[in-house]
Design goal:
Blueprint: E1 2-4, E2 7-9, E3 15-18, E4 24-27, E5 38-41, E6 51-55, E7 61-65, E8 71-74, E9 85-88, E10 98-104, E11 107-112, E12 118-121, E13 132-135, E14 146-149, H1 152-155, H2 190-198
Antiparallel strand pairs: 1-2, 3-14, 4-5, 6-7, 8-9, 10-11, 12-13
């Protein structure tokens, strides 16, 4: 086991990376392509919300998504404040290496080795869909993360994306009546809600 101050990282374990409100970092829309963004979302126990910390040198890790097999990386190898975090195939680059920095109270900061900046949330927002970025360390609440091991029962779930939903066919309008579209205000949940919110 590798110890970083009080935080013990197990090489055989997966972790969630949770913000103060309990939402976690995930690969957006369970996208397996290079360049898919890393963002905040309510935890649903899904493998694209789970991460392995793989040793990349003394005190450094690659943060690999359990579902996609790709690692957290800096978009365009950027090092400036506001550079987005996305996933990419593993390379030897320092932009894919991270240090775990103790922040007290069971929380940590995740510092990028290349940029010497920490994982942060765009606009200090904490709602679903907020993009992860790097920013200079300002000891902000939106730069603090809690690493929680994923329970064994969830590790046994198959690594499958949810099936694509087939949209329902619209009802035929009666003869002589105008066809109009109205918003039903129906509540959606899970991935369908995610897509709906993304399209707004």
């Amino acid at each position: 086991m590798k110890k970083s101050a009080q935080t013990i990282i197990r090489p055989d374990a997966c972790y969630t990376i949770a913000a103060a409100n309990g939402r976690v970092l995930e690969v957006a829309d369970f996208n397996t392509e290079n360049g898919a963004s890393v963002r905040l979302w309510s935890y649903e126990g899904q493998p694209w919300q789970q991460w392995r910390f793989e040793e990349a040198g003394e005190g450094e890790y690659r943060i690999k998504n359990r579902f996609t097999g790709k690692v957290m990386d800096l978009a365009m190898s950027g090092v400036n404040n506001g550079t987005w975090i996305h996933q990419w195939s593993q390379t030897s680059g320092a932009g894919q290496r991270w240090q775990i920095v103790e922040a007290g109270g069971g929380k940590v900061k995740l510092r990028n080795v290349l940029a010497d900046k920490v994982i942060d949330l765009v606009g200090m927002r904490v709602e679903n869909g907020t993009q992860a970025q790097i920013w200079q360390d300002v000891s902000g609440e939106n730069q603090l993360w809690k690493l929680e091991p994923v329970p064994d029962r969830l590790m046994e779930k198959p690594l499958e994306a949810p099936p694509a939903k087939v949209p329902a066919k619209p009802a035929k309008a009666a003869k002589g009546s105008k066809s109009t579209r109205t918003q039903t205000g129906k509540k959606t949940s899970g991935k369908s809600a995610r897509r709906a919110s993304k399209n707004k």
